[in-house]
Amino acid sequence: MITFTTKMLRGAITATALMTATAPLASAEVLTMSSWVPPTHFIHTDFLVPLTEKIAEVTEGRVTVTILPAPLASPPQHWELARTGVADITWGNFTYEPERFVSLWFAEFPNAGTNAEAQSRALWQTYQTFLADNAAFDGVKMLAVGMFGGGQLHHGSKSVTSPDDVKNQKFRMGGPIQEKLLSALGAVPVAAPATKAYEMLESGVIDGSLHTMESVVNFRLEDVLKYHTVFPKGFYDATFFVVMNGAKWDGLSDQDKAAIEGIIGEELSAAWGRNFDLQSPAAIEKLAAEGHEIVEASPELVAAVDTIYDTMVADWIGAAKGAGVEDPQAMLDFYNETYTALAGE
C-alpha cells in the first residue's frame, strides 16, 4: 500500500528533479540578435549561425543567442539598436552612418586590398590600436570588424576599361565615399541599396552598379550585369561591425566574458573575411562560365582612380582629426602595412 507519506516523498523527489533539470535553462542568459539579410544568405548561414553556436559552446549553455526572425529596423539603424539595447547584438556597415564613423572612411577608399581576411584582421588591429577609446564607439562591445575584399565596377551593356568609358554613365552606389569616387570620374552616382539594382538596371534607370563579385551572384544580377571591370587593389570597399550592447556585455559573468573573448576580436573578424574570400572566386568562376566579360581596368583608369584616392585621403585627414583621431596618417599607414604583411602570409 502506498501511504500518504510515500506519495509526498515521491512528489518531493519529482519536484526536486524537475527543478534540477530546468535550473540551467532558467539561469541562462538569452541574447537577441537583429540581422537584416535573409536566412539563406551566407552571412547568416556561414557567419552568424556559427557565432551563436560558438557562444553557446564556450559558455557551456549559460549564454545563448537567438537570431530574430525579422530585423528590428532598417540596416542603417542597426548600430543604434545595439547601442540603445533594443537588440543585444547587431551587425551592419559603418558608413551607413558616415558622419558618426568618419574615422573609418579610409578603409572604404580605393586600393584597400582584395584579401578580405587580411583586410578584416588589419582593420581589427587598427581599431584596437587607434580607435577603441574614440567616443564614436561608446555604448557597445565591439565583437568584430570586417571588410569584403574589394568592390568592383559592373556594367549592363558594355566593357568599361578607360576613364572615357566611365563618364556620364549612371552607376548605383551605396555610400558617400562611392559617390565622391564616381563623381570625380565623371560618372553619375545614383544612391540605392543593392536589393534595388536588378529593377533599376532592367528599367534603364542605371547603366551599371557597384558590387563585389560575389554580390553580383548573391543578389542574382547575372542577367543584368554582364561586364565586370576588376581593379587589382579594389575599386572601393566597405567596413562592417558586429557589436553587443555595452550594458548587456557588462552584465555577463566574468567567466562568460572571458570565454566569449576567446572567440571574438581578431578571430571573429578573420572569420568574416574568410567567408567573403570563399565566395568571390566561386562567383568569378560562375560568371566566366556563363560567358560574362571580366577585364582588368586599364592603366589609365587605375591612374585616374589613384589620383582621386590621393585627394580623398588629404580631405579625410582633416575630417578625421575633427572626429578625434590624433594622427590619421599614422593610422592609415598602420592599416596598409598590417594588411600587406597579413596578405603576404
Automatic annotation (TrEMBL):
Keywords, ordered alphabetically: Periplasm, Signal
UniProt-listed SUPFAM superfamilies: Periplasmic binding protein-like II
Top-level division of the source organism's lineage: Bacteria
TM ranges: none
Signal peptide coordinates: 1-28
Annotated compartments: Periplasm
InterPro entries: DctP_fam, TRAP_DctP_sf
Predominant subcellular localization, coarse grouping: periplasm
NCBIfam families per record: TRAP_S1
The protein's name: TRAP transporter substrate-binding protein
